[in-house]
Design goal:
The complex is a heterodimer of chains A (about 450) and B (about 90). Chain A has about 450 residues and is α/β, with parallel strands linked by helices. In chain A, about 40% of the residues lie in helices and about 25% in strands. Chain B contains 2 helices and 7 strands, in the order E-E-E-H-E-E-H-E-E. Chain B has a 3-stranded antiparallel beta sheet with strand order 1-2-7, with no helix packed on it. In chain B, strands 3-6 form a two-stranded antiparallel ribbon. In chain B, strands 4-5 form a two-stranded antiparallel ribbon. Classes of the chains: A alpha/beta (about 450), B mainly beta (about 90).
Amino acid sequence: MESCDVLVVGAGFGGPVAARRCAQAGLDTIILERARVPGEKVVSGLVIPFYGFTFGPDFIREGNPPIERPICRVVNRFIRDGEIYATDSTLRVPKPLALGYAAYCRPFCTWLADRAVEAGVELRTSTTAVEPILEKGAVKGVITDRGEEIRCKVLIDAGGTQNRLAIQAGLRRKYLPEALELYMVWDFEMAKEDVDETFGLSMEFFHALPEEGIGAPLGFGSTLYIFTYRESIHPGLGQFLVTRGEIPNLARLLPRYFENFQKKVTRWKRDIAPKVKLRAVTWDVCPIYAGLIPETRNMPVYGDGILIIGDAAGFEASAFGDGVPSAWFSAELAAEVAVEAVRKGDASRDTLREYERKVWEHPYITWIITDWRRWDLRKVLVSRSEAELRRMIRDHWGVGAFRYRYSGRPLLKAAREALRRDPRAPVKWMEMFTRYYHNWEENRCDPLSTS
Amino acid sequence: MEVRTSDRFPGVEWVGDPGDFIKVDESRCDGCANCVRVCLAECFEIKGKKARVRTLAECMECAACWYVCDKEAIVFSWPPGGTGFRTDWG
């Protein structure tokens, strides 16, 4: 049996951020990761919105994370009878500013974990946390798949959507299928000059009513997106696990609807298909609206000896790119509380409750788990109104998303707080945008060389 | 450790022996086939009005089967460390 101050389970997007902060505070910190290499079991593809980097941890803002491509424009394409009949590309910024940055999960998680190790964290890969050690209802550590007992003063559960440890500890229940989408993701190789010519620095969404049979097939699903990477593109298609009270046949529908998309949509057939080669097919379940469903939102994010962060805590709305920043933000808050608890020698529920208070004060996490507008996107797919669809999309992935009552308010609140802490923050943000852009332009970062 | 690939799902490897990390508790299963409907890897089949694990050879550990099982008949855990699926292109 061994022990440490803080044990973090999961080296995805949040775990290494929390662990690094704890190690920097002088705590003996261990991360357990069930994969051989951090991130090789994370399947989503990602475009991280700019605000994540702007307000996220310093070491990410000031470092050189493995970014594939900056995204300066979001293009929404509306499809009827297989043809694009309207396009909304109002959301754009000039380079080197970016609306977001695209990355692959594996190199990004590896990069985060490497930074944690540099700070003194012990990373144990190929190690599955099988169950929590519970004493009088308090979490005291975990038992691994090798039968080891690792005891800790505070456990930070960064175990992702499936939420295993928190469930076993009796704190949470599995997510409702209504809150989850199954995403199927295709990765295509594409020459850099072809990505530049076809997409530039854009990512694209394709929206259609369910009758088109290329996305949102049964009424409650997300759109088809194409993330653009350095030398590849990454289309993805999601569908809720429950639609109108029934479990859809996703094994049949998801592959069929992507096939329909490839056959019907001229944009794909003419401009994209001749230039691409399929490289990978993956899928995963994402908690799109977990935080917006009261039953989930009311589940605890802390307990005696345990703090729960990121997807595991329901701070997720991946259809809008907010999952990864939420993992970082909650990781930092959890680490602050864990450090204080270890220093006080008290990791009881009363002490760790401070984490919940900090979460509810955080402008972005609060927005993600309370902004009902996101949930309302489902209604338009039922109403079958194209005008309503276009209006809603404009308010989600278009310029309307930055209205004050949507993301504008949390953005201003976070900016005001950043300025209060450091009046030079805007200069640092500009430096970050410029550095990230040049890193991409000059190919300074080779993501797959990170090991 | 042995590494397997699949023609159906390129770019993914399955490493080592993950064991039976997903099981069906037949006493709870009512044969609704929800697990069959959501599994993209065709891990389940219905035999004798009960679901059973056909193979976990192409499982991507998403747990969709576990979420949609109203009867709590799916027992889901993680495979042993370092085994199961992996990809560089997620």
